[in-house]
Amino acid sequence: MRWWLAAGWAAFGLSSLGLLLTGHGSVPVAGEGAIGVSVLGSAVTAAAALLLIRLVPPELDGGFRRLDRTRLLRQTWLLLGLAVLTPLAFGLLVALDLDRSLGLLIKLLMFFIAPLAGLALSGGIRLPRIRPAAVWRWLGPVPAIVGYLWLFHGPFGQREDALEVSSLSTLVVTVFLVFLTASVGEEVFYRALLQTRLEALLGRWPAILLGSLLFALMHLPTRLAILGDLGYTLAAVIAVQGVFGLVTGYLWSRYRNLWAVIALHAGVNHLSLLWLV
Fold this sequence. Notes:
Elements: H1 2-21, E1 26-30, E2 35-38, H2 39-55, H3 69-95, H4 102-121, H5 134-139, H6 142-153, E3 159-160, H7 168-202, H8 204-218, H9 220-227, H10 230-255, H11 258-270
Antiparallel strand pairs: 1-2, 2-3
Helix pairs in contact: 1-8, 1-10, 2-6, 2-10, 3-4, 3-7, 3-8, 3-9, 4-7, 6-11, 7-8, 7-10, 7-11, 8-10, 9-10, 10-11
């Protein structure tokens, strides 16, 4: 299993280092390139958050109760299949130059309808896992969430270049749809459903690394349409979205609080939009 860890960490480290060495200190992440994130800032912010998750408090790790391994394998392969199909669906959307609003339907199908229906039909959605005491499930994530959002929107803040919205109503609807499909949908699928099963099979960090890489690859087709170069785009999504996945993945693994990872994801996506209101 050590080669899993070495390969996973190497993918993240080499992606960030490669971008910095080639002069890509900031990479576009949204708004057709209007919003960019510092590669170094992303790494430093993530490292600080991972440290806070590790230290507050250190005894919260939970395991799994007795599991049906046949059911676990069947469900894991189902979710891995959906994780691979999702970027392919987005790639088809971009290649055919279809209405981008169809991306919301793809996320609703791939993150909610298909996985929840598939899991329900294959033995149940929930795994019998052990969770930390209720008070620490809520208090434990707070330092990491606050620290990450402060660093991400402050000292290592993202860049916005002439990002505009046509009206307040458009902003509200956009925020709601992004919250539903990204902040909620992506965390439900990649963390609560997929990573939990990967953890039961592979262990914590192999599961977090694999889940984070799959999460990063989900963004590849839409980012490729903006950045153009495959190698650059692959490094960019791993160094930004993938690194963020490490934080939410570890947060989920330690505290098993879905609302905490949703709150962090929503804060990253939406706090920078407050000035537009």
